[in-house]
Write a structure and sequence with these properties.
This protein is of the alpha+beta class. The chain contains five helices and eleven strands, in the order E-H-H-E-E-E-E-H-E-E-H-E-E-E-E-H. The strands form three sheets. A five-stranded mixed sheet has the order 6-5-4-8-9, covered by helices on one side. A four-stranded mixed sheet has the order 1-2-3-7.
């Protein structure tokens, strides 16, 4: 993903306006990136173009609190993580994302997807045990839903 200074109008509402994603298609392709990480002008991150952001710092799961879609997948991931990890919902900076041990995104079409790079910078060590654990819990949740 690449950082992109933008805050959606009415971020709490799910929309299908991907104009900024389309406008940045060339930059994404050039960077070898698949998505944009939205942040405001002070460096507070919010979300990706179509999904929520999570990061691990040590054993703590952290997710942005504002200018985001409070989606169902995000809610389920936090509920699944809570018995195993401290969960913090708060402001998150670009620097925190760059310095995180693990970063992943969630969405109904992405489920739990690890993010390895922010711009040209690698995130963590490449070893993502906590997000692997969360992905396994989420996949079990989906597999057993409605049973």
């Amino acid at each position: 993903m690449i950082p992109y200074a933008y805050v959606r109008d009415l971020p709490e509402i799910k929309v299908t306006n991907y104009l900024h994603m389309i406008l940045m298609a060339g930059a994404l392709r050039e960077a070898g990136a698949q998505d944009l990480l939205y942040h405001d002008h002070s460096g507070q991150v919010s979300e990706l173009t179509r999904s929520n952001l999570f990061l691990f710092k040590k054993d703590t799961l952290i997710t942005p609190a504002r200018n985001i879609l409070h989606g169902i997948t995000r809610k389920v991931v936090m509920e699944l993580a809570a018995p195993y990890f401290p969960v913090e919902v708060r402001e998150v900076t670009l620097n925190e994302v760059q310095e995180a041990d693990e970063v992943f995104t969630t969405g109904s079409n992405k489920r739990v997807t690890q993010i390895r790079h922010l711009g040209d910078r690698e995130i963590g060590t490449g070893f993502y045990p906590h997000s692997d654990f969360i992905r396994e819990r989420f996949d079990d949740y989906i597999r057993n839903w409605g049973k």
